[in-house]
Each structure stands twice: as C-alpha cells, then as structure tokens.
Hints:
This protein has about 280 residues and is an alpha/beta fold. The protein contains 10 helices and 9 strands. It has helices at about 1-35, 80-85, 85-100, 125-135, 150-165, 185-190, 200, 210-225, 235-245, 260-275; strands spanning about 40-50, 55-65, 70, 110-115, 140-145, 170-175, 195, 230, 250. Helix 3 packs parallel to helix 4 and helix 4 packs across helix 5 (about 150-165). The mean pLDDT is about 90. Bound molecules: ligand C2E and magnesium ion (3 copies). Ligand C2E binds next to strand 2, helix 3 and strand 6.
Amino acid sequence: KREGRDRFVAFSQEMDAALRARHLIEEELAATLARGGRDLVLHYQPQVSGRDGEICGVEALLRWRHPRLGFLLPGAFIGLAEDTRLVAKLDEWVLRHACRQARKWPELTVAVNISPCSFERHGLAGRLLRIMREERVNPNQIEIEITESVLLKEGKSAAEELLHLRSQGVRVALDDFGTGYSSLNRLRMLKVDKVKIDRSFVQPIGETADSTAIVDAIVELGHALGLLVTAEGVETERQREYLRFIGCDEIQGFLFSGPVPPEAISEMLIEERQRGAA
Ligand code: C2E
Ligand code: MG
Ligand code: MG
Ligand code: MG
C-alpha cells in the first residue's frame, strides 16, 4: 500500500511539474507577444507550380527562438496558445509580419495559417483586413489557411467572416484536406479558393492504390468545383511526377524546399529570374 502511495505521490509531482512548465511557457509566450514578438520568427516554405516548378507562393510558418528551450516548432506551443486564447494575438502577429515580407515579394502569394480559435472572437475578417491596410498590402496577395474544423465550431459566423475576406480579395485555402469530418459536404458549404491535400494521402502515392485513388478523387473534385488544388508533403520525385500527371496545380514539400528564412526565398527568386533570363 505504502509503495502504491509513493508511486502516486511521484506521479502527482510529475503532473505538477508538467503543469508548471506549461504555465511558464504560456506566460513566456504572452510576454514575448507583449514585447512585440521579439523571439518569434517566420520561416517560409515555397509552393511551386505542378506544371513547371516555378514558385507561385509561400506559406508562413511560425517558429519561436525560446531563450531556455531553443528553437521551437509550432507543435510545441500552438496547442497551448489555442487553449489560452493567446492564439488570436499570435495569428495577428504572424499576418502583420508576413505582410511586411509580402511587400518585398510582389510576385508571390503569401499564405498564413489561422487557427479555428481565432474565429471565436467576433470580427476576425475586419481585424485581418485592417492589418493588411496598415501594412499597405493588397489583400489579393494574401491567402489564409483554415481547417475544416472552423465550420464545425463556428458555423454560420465563420462562413460570413470568410465571405467578407474573399469579397476584399483575400484567398482562402482549406488546409489538411481529407482529414476532417464529412469533408465533401463542408467543401460545398465553405466557400474557399483552394484545397490542400493532406500529406498523409500524398506520402503513400504509388505505394498503396487506395491513397493514390483518394488523391485522384480530390484533384478531380476540386477542379470540378473550380478550386485550385495543392499537394502538401511532397518528398519524392515519384510523387511529384504523379501529381503533375493528374494535373495537381501546386505542390509543397521537402522535395522542393522545407520552410526557410526569408532571405533564402529571396535568393531562390533571384536564381529563378536568372534561369528565366538565360
Ligand atoms: P500546416 O499548415 O499543415 O503546415 C505544414 C507543415 O508540414 C509544416 O510544419 C511544414 O514544415 C511541414 N512540411 C512541409 N513539407 C513537408 C514534407 O515534405 N514532409 C513533411 N514530413 N513535413 C512537411 P510546421 O512548421 O511544424 O507546422 C505545423 C503546423 O503548425 C502547421 O501545419 C500549422 O497547422 C501550424 N502552424 C504553423 N504556423 C502557424 C501560425 O502562424 N499560426 C497558426 N495558427 N498555426 C500555425
Ligand atoms: Mg498550413
Ligand atoms: Mg497542412
Ligand atoms: Mg497541419
């Protein structure tokens, strides 16, 4: 019995420690945001044309240079920011900084991820459009990436926010497509411009007939609805070949490039221009 109790004490001490660590990270995130996001950085991943491999856009992906914990990927802190409602502030920070970068890349579409939680506070579209205006970026250079859960959670009001954004030229992409519930119906209700096929379907292309069939079907459905289709997580030449063959519009993945600092994108654009001129 005593041993069981010791174990319980050890267990709850561990829980305490984990909770304290979580609280600390929350506080640190709030603090870095309050200081203008000093330790936050955006990396950008190219999205290239399926046809000729030209860069058509980039996706902004958030990183945190944490003073104690090192370079953190979103998986380590976005969930936490969602639980504490810090995420709306975080998404606005990302949009503002992505806009500043977008001004330097007039030929590219810049995509930012917007958490479903950001839709919970009323007036999201107005807030985002105001940031674009303040940063002097044309809304038609900006794309927002949302997931299907947005409609699940917020229903009609989310649909209205999206309509408002689209009426001003902002493009809307449905991220991680195929992993949520009743995707097909939602695709009809959500007015979007683009679907991004989740990488769990892209990675097994050519290995399992099932996932290849799903990718085929998504591209066909997307095109039938007049949408652009992007494939995420493209890592091999074979995947790229197949996606090109079925007419997938854009691809994104380590095969072309992972997320990189903005200077690296600028260099890619210069190289591309030189190749074009040669
Ligand atoms: P996502 O929007 O689906 O972004 C794509 C993720 O896949 C990125 O991970 C990217 O680094 C990774 N990836 C890209 N190409 C490949 C590939 O070929 N193979 C593999 N295995 N992975 C690839 P990351 O940067 O860790 O971001 C994870 C998620 O965090 C994102 O998924 C997005 O949902 C979220 N996130 C990132 N930045 C933000 C942000 O600013 N705001 C919000 N709310 N969420 C963000
Ligand atoms: Mg995304
Ligand atoms: Mg995705
Ligand atoms: Mg994702």
